């Protein structure tokens, strides 16, 4: 049976760190909308030496650093949180295994290490591999990427086909993130809502979560299941948006004008007796005036809601420049 090696020296472990993810990182939409085809279907990469940097955070590395296939055997990001719409697929209890499972990185008791997978993917095996089921007769969009003679990534045209070979799987390299309790405050500052979504992976360690998640057994830095209600907008110190203030500025004068008109009608009635024709329903007019006296114009379209009614999981997604065209 082959021998296994666990790397325990701090300096040796740090050599596999790709760097921090200290911004709320968002992959390009085409990464999940369009697969890369090699012998299998892949998320973000295909043949050896082909990697789409719009689909994976670079940390402190350059493209040539992660281009070799060996760069994907064993790695992690620290301190870091999962990218947008990636979910925690598993938590590493004491070591992070290499793809061949013969080498692993030791995880200390004060450190939390989790595997983030793209939305719709789950933990497969081999260290950090994620997988998603391809159903028979499922329609797939894919490209066949490669490097040209100068080593530049060439994505190629998008093809669409119906997968008729029976159930199969698509694969993705997951993102291993590692952090310590001392990183929590810093990581909270880069989430969509820094005051919400703190989930615990153990009795002593907490992880800031960019959004809530469902369908995972391990809770931590998960971003995939929650639905955004829109970008957060600036709110004035009074708690009212500019649109709401404009609505109040228009509505209050209208209500005052209606009140003055109603008072004028009452004044005329007292002076002239009953000037209205037979069958006139004065109570209806009173009710009409009462309703419109309390009426204010709604905020203008696009105006912001009150701060205290905003959902706690509003997220901000940073726009990414992607070399693929948008597919949907």
UniProtKB/TrEMBL annotation:
<keyword id="KW-0472">Membrane</keyword>
<dbReference type="GO" id="GO:0071944">
    <property type="term" value="C:cell periphery"/>
</dbReference>
<dbReference type="GO" id="GO:0016020">
    <property type="term" value="C:membrane"/>
</dbReference>
<dbReference type="InterPro" id="IPR051694">
    <property type="entry name" value="Immunoregulatory_rcpt-like"/>
</dbReference>
<protein>
    <recommendedName>
        <fullName>Mid2 domain-containing protein</fullName>
    </recommendedName>
</protein>
<keyword id="KW-0812">Transmembrane</keyword>
<feature type="region of interest" description="Disordered">
    <location>
        <begin position="199"/>
        <end position="239"/>
    </location>
</feature>
<keyword id="KW-1133">Transmembrane helix</keyword>
<feature type="compositionally biased region" description="Low complexity">
    <location>
        <begin position="199"/>
        <end position="230"/>
    </location>
</feature>
<feature type="transmembrane region" description="Helical">
    <location>
        <begin position="246"/>
        <end position="267"/>
    </location>
</feature>
């Amino acid at each position: 049976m082959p021998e296994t090696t666990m790397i325990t020296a701090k300096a040796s472990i740090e050599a596999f760190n790709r760097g921090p993810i200290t911004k709320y990182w968002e992959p390009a939409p085409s990464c999940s909308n369009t697969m890369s085809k090699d012998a299998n279907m892949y998320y973000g990469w295909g043949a050896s030496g082909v990697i789409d940097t719009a689909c994976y955070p670079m940390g402190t590395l350059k493209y040539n650093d992660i281009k070799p296939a060996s760069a994907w055997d064993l790695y992690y990001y620290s301190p870091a949180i999962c990218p947008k719409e990636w979910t925690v697929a598993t938590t590493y209890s004491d070591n992070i295994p290499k793809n061949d499972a013969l080498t692993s990185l030791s995880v200390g008791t004060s450190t939390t290490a989790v595997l983030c997978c793209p939305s719709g993917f789950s933990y497969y095996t081999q260290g950090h591999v994620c997988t998603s089921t391809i159903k028979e007769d499922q329609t797939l969009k894919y490209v066949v990427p490669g490097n040209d003679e100068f080593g530049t990534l060439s994505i190629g045209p998008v093809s669409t086909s119906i997968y008729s070979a029976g159930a199969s799987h698509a694969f993705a390299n997951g993102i291993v993130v590692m952090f310590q309790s001392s990183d929590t405050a810093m990581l909270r500052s880069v989430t969509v809502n820094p005051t919400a979504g703190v989930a615990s992976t153990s009795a002593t360690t907490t992880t800031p979560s960019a959004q809530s998640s469902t369908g995972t057994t391990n809770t931590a830095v998960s971003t995939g299941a929650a639905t955004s209600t829109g970008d957060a907008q600036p709110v004035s110190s009074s708690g009212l948006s500019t649109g709401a203030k404009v609505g109040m500025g228009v509505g209050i004068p209208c209500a005052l004008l209606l009140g003055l008109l109603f008072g004028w009608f009452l004044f005329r009635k007292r002076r002239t007796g009953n000037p209205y024709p037979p069958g006139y329903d004065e109570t209806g007019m009173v009710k009409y005036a009462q309703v419109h006296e309390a009426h204010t114009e709604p905020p203008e379209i696009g105006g912001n809601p009150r701060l205290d009614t905003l959902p706690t999981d509003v997220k901000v997604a940073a726009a990414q420049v992607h070399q693929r065209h948008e597919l949907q």
